[in-house]
Amino acid sequence: LLETLADQAAVAIERTILVADVEAARLAAETDRLRSALLSSLSHDLRTPLVSILGAASSLINYGDALEAKDRRDLAGTIQDEAERLNRFVQNLLDMTKLGSGALKPNADWADLNDVVRAAVDRSGKLLKGRQIKVDIDAGMPLLRLDSILMEQVFFNLLDNACKYSPPGSQVTIWARTSKDLALIEVCDQGAGIPEADRERVFDMFYRVEATDKQTAGTGLGLAICRGIVEAHDGTIKAEPGLHGAGTCIVIHLPLGAPPTLDSNETAGV
Ligand code: ADP
């Protein structure tokens, strides 16, 4: 009997080692994928705006005196836009690093979803290029327990995508209702949509849909950051087709906490 038990134990140990080996190989392959994706993303996403900045700066230095005021403003505008793009990219990388190391902890407080969404909409002004943003948040939406700064980043990233991947002049809608113990929030656009096969993977770091990859600049980090932040709030985030199967809806579920009371230490602003 002892021998049989020993044999069984040996087989079980071998199997465990095999599973561990397979898992280690999978992790190594994933690490390799992330490393090369990071390197190509870094070189492309840092170089492209830097080349534009250097070009515009050198035109200003060499020909600035001879240029019309409007052309000088255009060149200065290019420098500002591209520097902002660099800034967003570096901020995304920093957020990602913090999320990965668990250092990005939500500093949650009771917040009005309208304020958080409004702040993100205000920041996205430059991206709109004729697109309309419709905010439709149920008047009865209670205060939510969240980190306003991080959630503003989520809505900003989603609005950025909704604008980047939909035609100018189309409509982007931010819709929110409550259902039982959840806040349901959707950011929907009328763009090309995300193919079903990619809908889960777009939340992975550096993943970009092949068809849009060449046409639109991006890092593949925005949605990964959104997922990290939403999950840090015990929420969920997924991509769905928009109304009548057209466009994209990013659907977020956040837990509704117990409502704050006036004498509670957790009341907003205390
Ligand atoms: P980025 O936009 O910088 O590439 P994201 O992580 O924000 O990175 O998005 C990952 C990919 O998901 C994008 O490259 C794009 O292919 C796809 N995607 C995201 N949002 C949308 C959207 N609203 N409509 C269509 N495709 C989208």
The oligomeric state is single chain
Main structural class: alpha+beta
Bound molecules: adenosine-5'-diphosphate
Give the amount of beta strand, in percent.
15-25%
Mean pLDDT across the residues is 86
Distance between the termini: 67 Å
Tell me the helix content.
Answer: 40-55%
Q: Describe the sheet with the most strands.
A: 5 strands, mixed
| E-strand count | 7
Low-confidence stretches: 264-270
The succession of helices and strands, N to C, reads HHEHEEHEEHHEE
Strand order of the largest sheet: 2-4-5-7-6
Characterize the overall form.
globular
Radius of gyration: 23 Å
Number of helices: 6
Descriptive keywords:
270 residues; alpha+beta; 5-stranded mixed β-sheet; 7 strands; globular; binds adenosine-5'-diphosphate; histidine kinase
Report on the architecture of this protein.
The protein starts with a helix and ends in a 15-residue tail after the last strand. The longest helix has 62 residues. The radius of gyration is 23 Å and the shape is globular. With 270 residues, the protein is an alpha+beta fold. Helix content is 51%, strand content 16%. It contains 6 helices and 7 strands, in the order H-H-E-H-E-E-H-E-E-H-H-E-E. Helix 2 crosses helix 6 and helix 3 packs across helix 4. The strands form 2 sheets. The chain has a 5-stranded mixed beta sheet. A two-stranded antiparallel ribbon has the order 1-3. Member of the two-component regulatory system KdpD/KdpE involved in the regulation of the kdp operon. KdpD may function as a membrane-associated protein kinase that phosphorylates KdpE in response to environmental signals. This is histidine kinase. It comes from Telmatospirillum siberiense. It is found in: Membrane.
